[in-house]
Amino acid sequence: MDDYIGIYDNFSEEPNCNKPVSSIDKYYFSKTIIILMCLEGSARFNVHFKDYILSKNTFLVIGAGTPFFYTEKSHGLKVRIVAVSNSIFDKVAQGLIRIYFHRLMIQRPLHSISQAKMDMCSSIHSYLKGFITEEDNYFKMQIIKNYLNILFYEACNIMLHEPENASRKDKHKEEIASRFIHLMEQNIRTSRKVEYYASQMNITPKYLSAIIKEATGRSASAWIDDYTLMEARQMLRSGGMTIQQISYDLGFATPSHFSKFIKDHTGHTPKEIRAKIEDL
């Protein structure tokens, strides 16, 4: 999905949430990252084959591509929903926050929240909804991205302050994961090899891969692919380089290797992606 931000006041407005289903054969696969914040009432969800009850002062995060459905909701249910595409998340969330948010989506998507925090997050939702419909603001997208960034940070902050996270003694793995992300941000055009980043950190590729998988729920190579895609999109968006130049700048042996990589991960060729960007 291309750049997408959806701000909704209830299930009936959100395309992925507007139909209850009861069969495991009828999972939805969300095309966006969805954050549901419950103000009143409750709803029963199945997310990635696990059951969760969204109730007052809780929030649920559903990752893009995650199978889910809901089977029931109470009378008077009030939720606030923020939905963003992966491409928007890539532009907004950087560094360590990407690791924490992916852990939140994969390991424990449902979290309790204080009334004060819920009020604050609900206010952020209201601000976002207002700016989405605003037409004459020169800084509209920058403001929206900043509010989204605050929401992502707050969600991760809530997760990290829960007892099982706040009391964890071993911070070494998180430090390795954070350094790995930072190195990728700085060197993705230099190398797309796990071995390169392991050598920069003076650890073995096997150890780095194991740590990243444990800390984030995703492999080091998957992170590298994601950052390569993010960098490729930015370079295609700029229009300052040919597709051939971009492929070599990102370390691909040939433009055809680059095109295959992009096609395999997005379903589109670099030329098609550039054309879509130019049409926006």
Give a quick precis of the structure:
The protein is of the alpha+beta class. It has twelve helices and nine strands.
Can you give a write-up of this model?
Strands 1-8-3-6-9 form a 5-stranded antiparallel sheet. It folds into 2 domains: 5-166, Jelly Rolls, CATH 2.60.120.280; 172-279, Arc Repressor Mutant, subunit A (Orthogonal Bundle), CATH 1.10.10.60. The two termini are 13 Å apart. The relative contact order is 0.10. A hairpin with a 2-residue loop joins strand 4 and strand 5. Helices cover 52% and strands 17% of the residues. It has 280 residues and is an alpha+beta fold. Residues 20-26 have low confidence and may be disordered.
Strand portion: 15-25%
Q: Share of helix among residues?
A: 40-55%
Shape: globular
CATH class of the largest domain: Mainly Beta
Order of helices and strands: EEEEEEEEHHEHHHHHHHHHH
Number of strands: 9
The named CATH superfamily of the largest domain:
Regulatory protein AraC
User: What's the CATH topology name of the largest domain?
Assistant: Jelly Rolls
